[in-house]
């Protein structure tokens, strides 16, 4: 019997007992369907997190702060006052803040000289007074940072050009209606004015061109994002009136490293920074814990799907054992006519694989349809505040792997009946009643 005939015979024999085979396929379907949905959930959320990471920073960048001398006070009592310390981002319960030492130009040079650092520059934080368009209502707004390599999630337009000399800004989509724009596309190319107040209480206004409109996302705030030229100009205007020591004082620095560096080299660089008295964090680390939790949940859900597949494998064993018993005389006849034990084994193994393929293909197909429907429904309701999130997304490679794994499980489950059929004695089988 040729290989093509063997496959055709296996497919035809699968439905000799339709009810038994269909029930077995349904059992496999449950496991494959669950695996498809849970993997799609993990793919969708992790893809959204990856997009968020890109919107918060670049892969080859870490944020660095200098540890303050009084930062080691771990007691429950008050921290000793340090006149040179700078209040950083809030950490822990509401009302608590981290304290960092100011970073000077000399510190920037020191950071740039640490092994593994490609370059370093201070983070110039800007506190804007308002944003206004065409003499309309003035609105308070925050100013976000931007470095080359970041990919903001945009509703329209393009990323700000970090190397451009013209003033460019990306505004959040939440401001469109209030600023008088019909939609995101209508805002592109329009001028807006940003205002800052300096140390002498004098207000400065700078005009910039809208080059993009950003969407809200996990971990990002509704802030205007300027390019380097605009951010520097706002910072210089804000710093008017400060003495030299105050001008050379920054809360954070941005450090670039080789994007091709493996994880252990990045960790080693962070250890070297720690030894020099600096704290550092990459964008991926900021969301790493959240991603680990999601992966853990998906893993647990996948475990239930695997249990369902293992239960289905017993159904395959039962189906094929019954088939072997019912076809004992047929097996004896095939072997008496010269069919080898290997082909008999292959015949029943192919039946098991075909059952696994049917169950997994149907389960994966309906899983994709159900997941897409659920994701669309939630995207327009409960998850409407997270534009860009596709809760359940599907990767063709993952779907193919699921089908292949299920077929592999089916093959293993069919091994026992296939071996039993292959070892059948043709004389005894022909005498079987």
TrEMBL record:
Keywords: Cell membrane, Membrane, Transmembrane, Transmembrane helix. Signal peptide: none annotated. Its main location: membrane. The chain crosses the membrane at residues 21-42, 297-323, 344-369, 389-413. It is found in: Cell membrane. One of its GO terms (cellular component) is plasma membrane. Belongs to the ABC-4 integral membrane protein family. This is ABC transporter permease. It comes from Agromyces albus.
């Amino acid at each position: 019997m040729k290989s093509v005939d063997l496959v055709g015979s296996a497919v035809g024999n699968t439905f000799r007992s339709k009810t038994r085979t269909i029930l077995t396929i349904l059992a496999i379907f449950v496991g494959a369907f669950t695996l498809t949905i849970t993997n799609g959930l993990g793919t969708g959320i992790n893809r959204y997190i990856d997009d968020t990471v890109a919107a918060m920073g670049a892969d080859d960048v870490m944020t660095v702060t200098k540890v303050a001398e009084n930062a080691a006070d771990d007691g429950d009592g008050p921290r000793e006052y340090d006149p040179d310390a700078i209040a950083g981002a809030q950490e822990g319960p509401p009302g608590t803040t981290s304290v960092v030492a100011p970073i000077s130009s000399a510190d920037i040079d020191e950071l740039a000289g640490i092994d593994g650092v490609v370059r370093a520059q201070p983070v110039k934080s800007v506190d804007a007074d308002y944003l206004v368009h065409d003499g309309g209502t003035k609105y308070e707004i925050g100013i976000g940072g931007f470095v080359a390599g970041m990919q903001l999630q945009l509703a329209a337009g393009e990323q700000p050009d970090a190397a451009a000399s013209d003033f460019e800004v990306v505004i959040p989509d939440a401001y469109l209606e209030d600023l008088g724009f019909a939609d995101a596309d209508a805002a592109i190319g329009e001028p807006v004015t940003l205002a800052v107040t300096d140390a002498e209480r004098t207000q400065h206004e700078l005009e910039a061109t809208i080059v993009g409109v950003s969407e809200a996302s996990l971990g990002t705030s509704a802030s205007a994002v300027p390019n380097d030229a605009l951010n520097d100009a706002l910072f210089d205007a804000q710093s008017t009136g400060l003495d030299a020591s105050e001008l050379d004082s920054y809360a954070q620095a941005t450090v670039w490293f080789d994007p091709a560096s493996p994880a252990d080299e990045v960790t080693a660089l962070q250890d070297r920074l720690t030894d020099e008295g600096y704290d550092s964090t990459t964008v991926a680390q900021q969301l790493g814990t959240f991603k680990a939790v999601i992966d853990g949940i998906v893993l647990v859900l996948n475990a239930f799907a695997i249990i369902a597949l293992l239960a289905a494998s017993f159904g395959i064993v039962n189906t094929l054992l019954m088939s072997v018993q019912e076809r004992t005389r047929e097996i004896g006849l095939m072997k008496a006519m010269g069919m080898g034990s290997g082909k008999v084994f292959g015949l029943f193994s192919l039946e098991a694989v075909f059952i696994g393929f049917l169950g997994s293909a149907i389960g994966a197909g309906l899983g994709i349809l159900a997941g897409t429907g659920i994701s669309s429904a939630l995207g327009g309701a409960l998850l409407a505040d997270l534009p860009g999130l596709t809760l359940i997304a599907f990767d063709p490679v993952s779907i193919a792997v699921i089908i292949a794994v299920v077929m592999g499980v089916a093959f293993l489950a069919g091994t026992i009946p296939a071996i039993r059929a292959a070892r059948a004695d043709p004389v005894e089988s022909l005498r079987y009643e």
